[in-house]
Automatic annotation (TrEMBL), chains A, B:
PROSITE patterns: HTH_TETR_2. Gene3D superfamilies: Tetracycline Repressor, domain 2 (1.10.357.10). This is AcrR family transcriptional regulator. Residues 9-69 form the HTH tetR-type domain. Pfam families: TetR_C_6, TetR_N. Keywords: DNA-binding, Repressor, Transcription, Transcription regulation. The keyword Transcription regulation applies. InterPro entries: BetI_C, Homeodomain-like_sf, HTH-type_TetR-like_transc_reg, HTH_TetR, Tet_transcr_reg_TetR-rel_C_sf. Residues 32-51 bind DNA.
Amino acid sequence: MTGGYLKGRLRREDIITAAIAVYREAGYHGSSLREVAKRAGITHAGLIYYFPSKEALLAAVLERRDAEDADREQLNVAAPGLDMLRHLIGLAEYNVAHPGIVDLYVRLAAEAVSPGHPAHEYFVRHYRVAREEVLASFQALADTGELRPDVDPQVAALTFIALEDGLQAQWLTTPDEVDLVGSLRTYLQSLLTVPLS
Amino acid sequence: MTGGYLKGRLRREDIITAAIAVYREAGYHGSSLREVAKRAGITHAGLIYYFPSKEALLAAVLERRDAEDADREQLNVAAPGLDMLRHLIGLAEYNVAHPGIVDLYVRLAAEAVSPGHPAHEYFVRHYRVAREEVLASFQALADTGELRPDVDPQVAALTFIALEDGLQAQWLTTPDEVDLVGSLRTYLQSLLTVPLS
């Protein structure tokens, strides 16, 4: 690893940190690359070198969030199966207490459905990784007889991710009418032959 | 009903029709009120009188879509219960064949999570109506023993709507990896004690 490469990595991380602060204060439409550059102590041209668009920068914010979520909720060390599903419920509880990042995720996910969008590749990867992670748990539960025999692990995994995404948008719009964590828990429990908690 | 009122209603409908055509050709970001005004044969100021923003106009497009969906899929005449659920699967099949309107729905739903957004009220209403419609069906199924006894109709209704929304975004992003209709059908079947079809 060269010194220049390391410096670039650090600068990139500083920019993402500044972007998170600006987004928190100004929201999706209020955030601008100019404000992020100012906060990070870098020129606008310098910022563009690392992130050619606001959307590319916001995808990097979500990428860092995924890494932080994995650390905090121990997603990389949890055993596939009930343990992992409980950690995913823990993540949903964290999200409900942090609506700002959920708001960013929901907005960028909708923007990024088109292949040409700067965050498109992030979401293609994110969905795949999320589905695989959950699939491994449902497969482990099927092996031990803890998954209902009529449940297909593939369908259950895809459905869990889609349900979480759909609940988030509906919860942000009508927070008093949507029990995000309770709905996810009830859905997971309905697939199992043993108590989730 | 006065002649002026009727004329206003017709003019409003013409504008929505023009907006649908422009959206179909230019997409979410390419569509402009100016282009819609031109297509509808009305001045820009005249258009603003009816729809103060692009987002308000797009909410009206979704409102007309809801009415058209209800007519085509006979949602207002289907009996609550299995019959209604089958019609909702029919609607999902129609949606898969018409990704353009799904794209508009997904994008505007994400934009409209904030209370200040011109389409916010539309989505609050849309979610409520959709949940009530599905709830009536699950309640009817519970009464006849066709719903699994451990399924709560309220949770099942909320989950169905959220699942459909989440599947739509994931399907638009990775169409080859998401079986939208199959996943919905499997989810519904898992709640029932009788065959869905």
